[in-house]
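Hi everyone,

Forwarding the result from last night's run.
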Amino acid sequence: MRLFYFILIFLLILSESVIALDDPDLIFYFTFEEISGDFIKDQSGKGHDGKIVGRVKLSDSGKRGKALELDGQSYLDLDGANFPADHIPRDAITLCAWVKCKQGGDHAIFNARASDQTWLIHPEVRSENNFRWLLRSDGGATIFDIRAGSVKWNEWAHFAGVYDGKKGYLYINGVLEGENVGGGKIAKDWGSGARVGRNIDEARPFNGLMDDLCLWKKALTLEEIKKVMEKGAEAVSGGEAVTPFGNMTTTWGNLKTF
């Protein structure tokens, strides 16, 4: 009986745990573990929760835990027009996500459009069976447009797009698939909108599963990307599981004396 209560209390504590991250360069981080009302919580600590538009569901078949399930008609709105200027990457950027897409059309992982109508970022799974990583600067000038890698439809792949201010890099499953010389700052605002899973003009709807979507305003190294692939953003951004009793180490000590 004592063992039963021990397991029950431990599971209840786990259900209340959250991720506490301490990285000023981590702009948003979606683990897609729960829906709260009309929103999915941003775990970065920045408060950029995604507003659900359409029939968004969480699947139990995620790469790590649950995953976002989009049906080609739904997406998350990040309120780009009110996104703080100091949270928008300009000098460097890294965007990572696990994706598992159904075949057919182009799939936008994330999209943002500036107030001058510049399409400034395109991380995509493409209908021509490759991946795309594009950035543009103010006025619509293309910094780089990388299309590389090989898509295996209905299978998980880890997408990591990086820009260090000089070159763009596209890593798929921890392997460098493409790079291109860049130079210049990324467009300065998301005034026309920012979305997960659908372009601002309603094009390129994502159809499939997505997990561990995260954005930094810095360039991660390949070693860091591999850590993110395995353990999520908290592996490189100073995270730990925190419960109402404190961190998990402290909680475990409390439980052992139950």
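Residues 3-17, 241-258 have pLDDT under 50 and may be disordered.

Cheers,
N.
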